[in-house]
């Protein structure tokens, strides 16, 4: 009740491969719940309840970095959703997209439209609500799966170990060109990292570009 059905569903798919046996940790739900909260704030102005004014009707190409990441995200989420044990990786890609979109001054509506369709299989309730709030009248469940441009998907994803006080506790997958702030955010939101942060204060997050993340608590 505290976090909602979407948070629980997302946590169960994000904690690791579905076929793996992983103990339930309520604290791990908090990270994915915060991700959904950021997603909501990205799309909705909390003051008015209307569409966030940073979302524009300009073409996607007007924001090249976000546009390229959108195409990479469509490809990665599609490929990982097709394999049940890779759904956790698909969610990682969705988180990276939200991190970059949150930092952007302007977000083309085209990108939001595509993102919500990718989110829908994983968090159907919030995706449906946001879909309606952005002006759609048909259910998102009936929307077509987005397509991507292969030419815009040239950068590969890299896997980075995440340490807590020097001990590896999780792995995250991010785009090779992901900025440091997004890498930190993705690492701190990982449920397994959340488990090791309960009751502790994060003193420092060290990112060794392309290699590892170390959370010091």
Description:
The chain is an alpha/beta fold and 217 residues long. It folds into two domains: 5-152, Isoleucyl-tRNA Synthetase, Domain 1, CATH 1.10.730; 157-216, Ubiquitin-like (UB roll), CATH 3.10.20.590. It has eight helices and six strands, in the order H-H-E-H-H-E-H-H-E-E-H-H-E-E. The strands form two sheets. The protein has a four-stranded mixed β-sheet with strand order 4-3-6-5. Strand 5 (204-208) and strand 6 (212-216) form a beta hairpin. The model has no long low-confidence stretch (mean pLDDT 91).
Q: Secondary-structure blueprint of this entry?
A:
Elements: H1 5-14, H2 26-43, E1 55-56, H3 64-81, H4 87-103, E2 107-108, H5 109-119, H6 124-133, E3 157-164, E4 167-175, H7 180-189, H8 191-195, E5 204-208, E6 212-216
Parallel strand pairs: 1-2, 3-6
Antiparallel strand pairs: 3-4, 5-6
Total separate domains: 2
Rg over C-alpha atoms, rounded to the nearest angstrom:
17 Å
Low-confidence parts = none
The CATH homologous superfamily of the largest domain is named Isoleucyl-tRNA Synthetase, Domain 1
**CA-to-CA gap between the ends?**
29 Å
The CATH topology label of the largest domain is Isoleucyl-tRNA Synthetase, Domain 1
Number of strands: 6
Count of helical segments? 8
Structure summary:
Helices cover 46% and strands 14% of the residues.
């Amino acid at each position: 009740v505290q976090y909602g059905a979407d948070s629980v569903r997302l946590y169960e798919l994000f904690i690791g491969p579905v076929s793996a046996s992983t103990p339930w940790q309520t604290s791990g739900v908090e990270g994915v719940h915060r991700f959904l909260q950021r997603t909501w704030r990205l799309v909705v102005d909390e003051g008015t309840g209307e569409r966030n004014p940073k979302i524009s009707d300009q073409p996607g190409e007007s924001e090249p970095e976000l546009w390229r990441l959108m195409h990479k995200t469509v490809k990665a989420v599609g490929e990982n959703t097709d394999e049940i044990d890779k759904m956790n990786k698909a969610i990682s890609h969705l988180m990276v997209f939200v991190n970059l979109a949150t930092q952007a001054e302007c977000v083309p509506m085209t990108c939001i439209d595509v993102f919500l369709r990718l989110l829908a299989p994983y968090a159907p309730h919030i995706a449906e609500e946001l879909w309606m709030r952005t002006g759609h009248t048909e259910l998102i469940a009936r929307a077509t799966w987005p397509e991507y441009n292969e030419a815009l998907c040239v950068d590969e994803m890299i896997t980075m170990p995440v340490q807590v006080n020097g001990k590896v506790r999780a792995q995250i997958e991010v785009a090779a060109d992901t900025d440091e702030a997004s890498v930190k955010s993705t690492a701190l939101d990982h449920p397994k990292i959340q488990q090791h942060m309960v009751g502790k204060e994060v003193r420092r997050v060290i990112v060794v570009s392309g290699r590892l993340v170390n959370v010091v608590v």
